[in-house]
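From the shared-data thread, chain only:
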Amino acid sequence: MGDPGAGPSGLAGLAPNFFTPKRREGVLERVELRLGEVSRIELNRPEKKNALDLQMLEELDEALQEVEGARPRVLVLGGKGDTFCSGMDTSVLAELATWGEERLLPVIELAQRVIKRIRGMECPVIAACQRYAIGGGMQLALAADLRLATPGTLFFLREPEFGILPDMGALHLLPRMVGDGVARDLVFTGRRMTAEEGVGLGLVNGIFPDLEEGVRLYVERILSRPPLPLRESKRLVERSWVEDSERNFELAKEAQLRCLRELRT
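Structure, as C-alpha cells:
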C-alpha cells in the first residue's frame, strides 16, 4: 500500500484567529460525536484520509470535553472511510513552517491537549484503526488504552521527514509499550510496523477483518465488568509510571476500600 497523502486544506490565507473554524456554533464538521454509555468519536474527513488539520484538532478537543462530562463506560475512537488517520495534513505543515513561534506554540499545545484528554479519560479508550495510523494518527492511537486493527494496518511516524519530531506523545508512550530499542528504531527510521508485528510487541491488542465486530467484542467484555474497579485500575496503571511500588500499594489499598464500600451499598 502506498502513502495515502492528503491534498490542500485551503488554509493558505488563515486569519490570525485561526482557532475559530468556519462552522456553526456547537456543530462538529470534521469529527462525529455520539454520546452514551459507549461513546464514540470518529474523525470525519474521509476524502483526505482523515488527515489532521487545525479545525479537526479543535473539534477533537471540544468532543473530548463533552465525553468527559458525559462519563461513559467506554470511548471508541475511530475514523470514517478506509483509513484511521493519515497524520497531519501536509499542506498544514507547510503553512505552519512559515509561522513564528508565538503562533506555533498554541498549535502544539492544542495537539498535545487532545492527547492528554484521551490519555486522561477515566473510562477505557479503544482506538479502532484501519489501513493507516501515520504520524499524528499513530500518536492518537497510542494515547488510547487499547488498539484494535484490521489485518495489514500500518503504523509509522513520518514527522522527521518534514524536519519536525513527533510531539503528540509518541516519544513518551512508545518506549513504554514496545521497549526502548524498538521505539528508537521506529522514531529514527520511520519504519512501518504492521498490525501483525504490533501484536507481538504489545502495541496492538487484536486484529479483526471486521473491525466493528472486534470493537463490539471488546466493548462487551468491558461492559460485563463493574465500572468502578475498571476506573480505579486504569488510574493506578497510569500512576504506576510515576509512583514507586510502595506508594502504588497504598493507592491500591485505598482504591480497594472504595470498591468494597460500593459493593456494600
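Residues 227-264 form one domain.
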